[in-house]
Amino acid sequence: FGDVVVGSTAIRSVRLHNYGDLGVKFRFEIPAKVQGLFSVEPAEGFASPSDDVLLQVKFHPKSGSASEDRRDARSKRIRCVLEQGQEHDPIELIVQGRGIDQPDSNEKTYEFTSEVRSQHTLEVTFPPPPGNPTSEVWKLNPVVKTEVPANVDYWSCPAEIVVQPGGSTQFDITYRPLSMTSQDRPASSEDGSKKAVKRREFPPKHKGQIFLATPDGNAFMFKLEGTSLAQTTVKRIAAEVQCKTPHVQAVEVSNWLRESQRFGVKVNLVEPANAGEEIKLQGVGTFDLPPGIAKEYKFNV
Fold it and tell me: Where are the residues of the annotated region Disordered (predicted)?
């Protein structure tokens, strides 16, 4: 197999040929120390007389350290055992490969900027030139992870990416943040001056990654960085209310998180500014919502 990037899987096709006049059952016996590195599919089956069985031999190294490299580089023997009654010794399949760390050239960083609860999509060409160097169609399953903040999914991409032989393909990476990153904003100090302060509860940037392993033993890492800004769009609600008649106004509020939220609510009269007691707005100061629920907040006019 040669050098294979840790975390990826290199695949080689092997044909098992039955030269006899009778069909035979077979199974592969892989030593315990080798099972974590190599595998054969199918691990057992039936070979018809004078026929071939197409096997896929896979190498999936777990470590790229120097000590592990030396162990990986040694030849390993996998036995193919024929069913009882056949006068044939087990067949040996000799496999060899070495796990290596991911090359820096296979890492790339993409930056995203979006308003919170909106989205930003980038189109990516994969793999880079010369593309898919094999004669086989690649069907790849990217592993997407949001690292900061933890336990959320702010990035997404297609679950399967198909790459034709000798070519490349395009796919979209979408960033949809549900929380903000920290922003410098003016705040008054004790002496009345203004200076920039940061909201410590938010990280400077959201971070994630996409890992793509290819069947030729290579692997690619896309590092993702996102900046989430405050929303600039303002929702306006219009209502006609008869003079001197109480009115209850409803505003739909959604909880976009996977956890309960308590919203702080401020209801202020902006115009006319000097209404005094003629126009009063009254509403509770907090509003609780379970995760993923939309509900109406109501206030009195």
Answer: 179-201
pLDDT band of residue 184 (cuts 50, 70, 90) is low
- How far apart, in Å, are the Cα atoms of 234 and each of 38, 85, 267? 57, 80, 15
Q: Which domain holds residue 49?
A: 3-100
pLDDT tens for 100-159 read 887 888 899 999 999 998 999 999 999 998 899 999 999 999 999 999 999 899 999 999
Give the CA distances from residue 287 to residues 54, 259, 266, in Å, rounded to whole numbers and listed in that order: 63, 14, 11
What are the E-state strand segments in 21-164? 24-29, 38-41, 44-47, 52-59, 76-82, 91-95, 98-100, 107-115, 120-126, 138-140, 143-148, 155-156, 161-163
A 10 A CB-CB count for 30 gives 19
3-state secondary structure of 81: strand
Asked, for residue 188, whether it belongs to a domain, the answer is no
Which residue in this structure is represented by tokens 């509403």? 283
169 within domain boundaries: yes
Regarding whether 124 and 224 lie in a shared domain, the answer is: yes
What is the rounded distance in angstroms from the CA atom of residue 134 to the CA atom of residue 118?
39
Looking at the fold, whether 173 and 258 belong to one and the same domain comes out as no
Residue 209 belongs to domain with CATH number: 2.60.40.10
The answer to the question of residue 94 being in a domain is yes
How far apart are alpha carbons 96 and 224 in whole angstroms? Answer: 35
CB atoms within 10 A of CB 100: 19
How confident is the model over 202-218, as pLDDT tens digits?
Answer: 899 999 999 999 988 88
Residue 173 falls inside a structural domain: yes
pTM over 0.70: no
